């Protein structure tokens, strides 16, 4: 069985490639743990640029519901909390974080993108945050901080799909670059990242992203996920219309 996450390590940057293409890179417990461990290790080694992308036809389809029927509500809650812990680790990273996304992206997959400081999408990329349909408040403040309250309210409350062009217009994406252009995007990110010293970069991010780390994010998530009937709400969401 292949590893769920491939990490390419260089002296100044690491590339994290989600590697469950047969599952649209959905976030299994193993993938979430691998991301958490990898990000923590990168921080310990003072890596200044972290790049995230996905193998296959998309970046990430969000929460993996494969074992829904065998998991207890406690298991599901623990998995959701672990995702939020990983997202918080990414959102508060002292490194520059770059998301390169393509294809159809959902829920916690789109939240990974929102947790990165720079976000690039291929043309044709789409995004959707469906978690509110089963009562889940995950990553909401991060998305709001990027696109503004009114845009966040429109998208999150309707759970509608929005495309790369709309994402660019509201600031969720900062550029549209197809995958064959990503090597140039990475090269430019490396060049830009070298402008500041590590300590200056860390201090700058502490000021600019002072609101990124908040126990309120985790508290809101736990309150929403811990409401009785989580599995039934997920089943209703997954049920074909």
TrEMBL record:
Keywords linked to the UniProt accession: Isomerase
Protein name, entry field: Enoyl-CoA hydratase/isomerase
Signal peptide, first to last residue: none
A biological-process GO annotation: fatty acid beta-oxidation
Pfam families: ECH_1 (PF00378)
SUPFAM superfamilies: ClpP/crotonase (SSF52096)
Organism of provenance: Advenella kashmirensis (strain DSM 17095 / LMG 22695 / WT001)
Superkingdom classification of source: Bacteria
GO terms assigned for molecular function: isomerase activity
Alphabetical list of CDD domains matching this protein: crotonase-like
Transmembrane segments: none
Keyword hit for Isomerase: yes
């Amino acid at each position: 069985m292949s590893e769920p996450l491939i990490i390419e390590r260089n002296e100044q940057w690491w590339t994290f490639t989600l590697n469950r293409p047969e599952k649209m890179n959905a976030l299994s417990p193993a993938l979430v743990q691998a991301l958490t461990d990898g990000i923590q290790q990168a921080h310990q080694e003072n890596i200044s640029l972290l790049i995230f992308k996905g193998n296959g036809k998309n970046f990430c389809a969000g929460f993996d519901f494969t074992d829904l029927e065998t998991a207890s509500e406690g298991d599901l809650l623990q998995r959701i909390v672990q995702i939020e812990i990983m997202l918080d680790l990414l959102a508060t990273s002292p490194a520059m974080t770059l998301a390169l996304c393509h294809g159809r992206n959902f829920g916690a997959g789109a939240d990974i993108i929102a947790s990165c400081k720079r976000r690039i999408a291929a043309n044709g990329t789409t995004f959707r945050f469906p978690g509110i349909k089963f009562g889940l408040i995950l990553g909401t403040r991060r998305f709001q901080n990027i696109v503004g309250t009114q845009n966040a309210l429109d998208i999150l409350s309707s759970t509608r799909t929005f495309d790369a062009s709309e994402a660019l217009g509201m600031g969720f994406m900062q550029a549209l670059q197809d995958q064959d252009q990503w090597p140039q995007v990475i090269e430019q990110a490396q060049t830009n990242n070298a402008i500041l010293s590590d300590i200056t970069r860390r201090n700058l991010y502490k000021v600019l992203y002072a609101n990124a780390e908040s126990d309120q994010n985790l508290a809101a998530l736990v309150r929403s996920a811990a409401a009785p009937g989580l599995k039934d709400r997920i089943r209703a969401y997954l049920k074909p219309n």
